[in-house]
Amino acid sequence: MFRKSMLVLALAGAANAVSAYDEKSLATDAAWVEQQSRVIAPDAVGLADKLWQWAEMGYQETRSSAAMQDQLRAAGFSIETGIAGIPTAFVATFKQGRGGPVLGLLAEMDALPGVAQHAVPQHSSIEGQAAGHACGHHLFGAGSTAAAVMLSRWIQETGTAGEVRLYGTPAEEGGSGKVYMVRAGVFKGVDAILQWHPGDSNAALPRSSLANKSAKFRFSGVSSHAAAAPERGRSALDGVEAMNFMVNMLREHVPDSTRIHYVITDGGLAPNVVPAKAEVFYYVRDSSAAELQPIWERVEDIARAAAQGTGTSVEWEVIHGNHSLLPNQALNRLLDASLRQFGGIEYSAEEEAFAKSLEGLATGPDKTLESAAQIADYDPSEKATPGSTDVGDVSWNVPTGGFRTATWVPGTSAHTWQAVAAGGMSIGHKGMQLAAETLTLSGIQLLREPTLLKKARAEFDEKRGDDFRYEPLLGDRKPPLDYRK
Fold it and tell me: Of 257, 288, 322, which marks where a domain is finished?
C-alpha cells in the first residue's frame, strides 16, 4: 500500500470534519473503488505514459485524444468528436436507464512548449522534442478517463439510472478549449462537473482563480535600410517597444490583483533592416471578468497610442479569455470527504531517493517529502489562486468542484522540468490513481444521492444571482487551432 490507513487519516482530520456524509457508505464504496482501481491501473498508467511521451500541444493532441477515446469506447461509451469545431475535442457518454443524474468529468490533454524532459531528477532535455507535460495534463486526461470507466462499471453493477460524460478538453494552456465548448452548449443538461489537477499536495479547497484574457498585438510599419535611409522607415518594433513601455507604466495604476505579462514573439530579423512587422503577445489577469475588462481596454488604448506615436499601424487577435472559477462548497466538501477515504501518497524507497535528489525544489515547513502523505485541512475561504483556467467558464455554467493530488514532489512548481520528470514516473502515477479514486467515489455519492446535487445547484444559483448572463471573454472568434504552430 502506498497510502496511509483510512483510520489514521480519519483521526488526523477529525478536527476538520466538514461533511455529514454517511461514513459507512463512503467506506463501503471506497473499498469497491480501490478494488476497481487496482484492476484499471495498468490501462490508466499506460495511457498516461503515452500522452507523456507524445507531449502534444494545444489543438494538436490528435494521438492523445484518440487514445483516450479508444479506452472509453472499449468500456462501452458512445463518442462524439469534433466538438465546437475543435478536431481533438470530444464527449464520451455512458448512460443507463431513464432519468437519473447527469455527471460530467473533465479531461485535459495538452502539453507546454519548450519543457521536454526525461523522467530523471536532474535537468535533462529530450533532444528534438518540442514540448513536455509540465502541467501534468497527461495525468489529468488519463486519470479522469479511468474514473469515468469505473463510474460506468458501478452504474452497471448497481443498476443505477444515470449518465456519465467524459469531456475531452484540448488546449487549456492558452487556447481556452473549454470556452468554445461552453459556447457551443455541450455542457447543457449536466447536473454537476467534477475535475482535478496535478499538483505537489493533496487538497480539495474551494478556490477561485484569476480571469484572464490574451491577444497578439501585431504592428505594421515601413521597411528601409537602417543606416542608409532611416528616415524612410517606420519601425514596427518601435511600436511594440512603445506599447511595452506604456504598459509597464500602467502597472503603477492598476489594482493589486492585476497581473500583466508579455513576450515579444516577432521583433524583426536583422538590425540593419527597419522591421516592417513585429508582434507582442500579452496576458492580462484580474480577480473577475468585471475587474479585468477595464484594464484590458486600457491596454488596447495603449496599443493604439503606440502605433500613432511611432507612425505604424496595429491590429490584434484575441487568443483566449477565461472567467474566474466559481467555487462550490457543496461539491468540494464531498470531494474532501472522498479524498480522506484514500489518504495521501507514500513513497517507495526508489521514489524517495528520486525525490531527495530532485533539483530546484521550493522547500519549507509544508513542502517536505512527508507532506505528500497528508491531506490539507479543509479551508472554506474562497480566495483566488494566482493562476487562470478555462474551467472557470465551465463553473459559471454548471456547478463545479475540483481538487489536487500530489503527482509531483512537494515543492515542485507547475510549468517546470521537475513537474515533467515526476509526471513521467511512478510518483505521478500514484497521484493520478488517487485522483481517479477520489473522482469515482464522489461521483458514486452524487449518483446515489441526488439531494447532494440539489444542494450544489442551490449554492450555484445563489452565487451567480438572478441577473447573471454568461458572456465569453473571447467573443465570437473561432478556435485558434494554429496558435501553437
Answer: 322
Residue 419's pLDDT band, with cuts at 50, 70 and 90, is: very high
Its sign, for the CA torsion 240, 241, 247, 251, is positive
Dist. CA 274–CA 272, nearest whole Å: 7
Q: Is 264 within 8 Å of 243 (Cβ atoms)?
A: no
DSSP string for residues in 22-41:
-HHHHHHHHHHHHHHHHHHH
CATH number at residue 111: 3.40.630.10
Q: Is residue 470 part of a domain?
A: no
Q: Look at strands 277-286 and 259-266 and give their pairing.
A: antiparallel
Residue carrying C-alpha cell 465570437? 476
Residue 257's domain comprises: 211-322
Which residue bears the cell 457518454? Answer: 93
* Boundary residue ending a domain (276, 305, 322): 322
Rounded-to-integer distance, Cα 5 and Cα 8, Å:
5
Query: Both 276 and 338 in a single domain?
Result: no
Rounded Cα distance between 326 and 464, Å, is: 8
Q: 359 and 456, same structural domain? A: yes
Q: Is residue 481 part of a domain?
A: no
pTM over 0.90: yes
Would the pLDDT of 21 be above 80?
A: no
Which three cell numbers mark 202? 493533496
Question: Number of structural domains, the chain?
Answer: 2
The pLDDT tens digits for 144-178 are: 999 999 999 999 999 999 999 999 999 999 999 99
Residues 375-415 pLDDT 10s = 999 999 998 888 899 999 999 999 999 999 999 999 999 99
Give yes or no: residues 258 and 314 share one domain. Answer: yes
pLDDT value of position 25: 81
Instruction: List pLDDT tens digits, range 294-336.
Output: 999 999 999 999 999 999 999 999 999 999 999 999 999 999 9
Please report, as a single letter, which amino acid is at residue 356: K
Q: 204, 201, 205, 198: which is closest to 429 by C-alpha? A: 198
Tracing cell 485524444 back to the chain, one arrives at 65
pLDDT at 97: 94
- Terminal C-alpha separation, the chain: 43
Q: Domain containing 224 — which CATH number?
A: 3.30.70.360
- Shared domain for 243 and 390, answered yes or no, is no
C-alpha cell at 145: 478517463
Strand order from edge to edge, sheet including 313-322: 259-266, 277-286, 211-220, 313-322
What pLDDT does residue 256 have?
93
Residues 15 and 164 in one domain: yes
Percent of the chain that is helix, strand, coil (3-state, to 5)? 45, 20, 40
